[in-house]
Amino acid sequence: MNDKPGVSELRLVVTAPDYEQALRFYRDVLGLPERAAYESPGGRVTILEAGRATLELADPPHAAYIDDVEVGRRVAGHIRVAFEVTDTAAATARLAAGGATIIAEPVPTPWETLNARLEGPAGLQLTLFGDQQPSQSEPVKDNS
After folding, report:
1. Which residue range forms the structural domain that includes residue 122?
2. Burial zone of 36 (CB within 10 Å; 0-12 exposed, 13-18 middle, 19+ buried)
3. Of 18, 25, 77, 78, which Cα lies nearest the Cα of 48?
């Protein structure tokens, strides 16, 4: 018999002072599909699908190392949200055009991903990460 508690979903709950801006950004710009929406007296909540969820726990020295690799200095608070994307450069450009602030452009990392750092609505610091392959929108150099 398994005595371990069963967790079937990780849900990150964010209170967004500008709810409409945050909803537009995360649903329409980032592309997280809407699972459900509810209203309460004077309030609203929308649940967005974000694919598979993991909980990444880092001690302060490792968190500082990640910031150094992605940004070059310590910038994140104790919460940072990371999204795996198919094209880091294109997603960074799309999110910046949709209202995010770029903290650091995509950089190759020691763990063989291409990572970018942004600040999105509701004050969330975001990491976008994906394979270290050139963007489909960029020409590929022919070395022949």
Report:
1. 19-131
2. exposed
3. 25
* Domain-embedded: residue 5: no
Token pair, residue 103, equals 């903290």
Asked if residue 102 belongs to a domain, the reply is yes
Structural tokens at position 58: 């880092």
CATH of the domain at 94: 3.10.180.10
Q: How far apart are CA 50 and CA 118, in angstroms?
A: 17
Does 7 map to a domain?
no
Pick from 11, 9, 10, 28: which is nearest to 120 by CA? 28
**pLDDT 10s digits, 40-95:** 999 999 999 999 999 999 999 999 999 999 999 999 999 999 999 999 999 999 99
Tokens of 126: 């975001």
Q: How many domains does the chain have?
A: 1
- The strand pair at 125-131 and 81-84 is best described as parallel
Rounded Cα gap, residues 91 and 22, in angstroms: 17
Distance CA 51, CA 85 (A): 11
Q: How many of the other CB atoms lie within 10 Å of CB of 5? A: 5
The 10 Å CB-count burial string (b at 16+, else e) for 42-63 is eeeebebebeeeeeeeeeeeeb
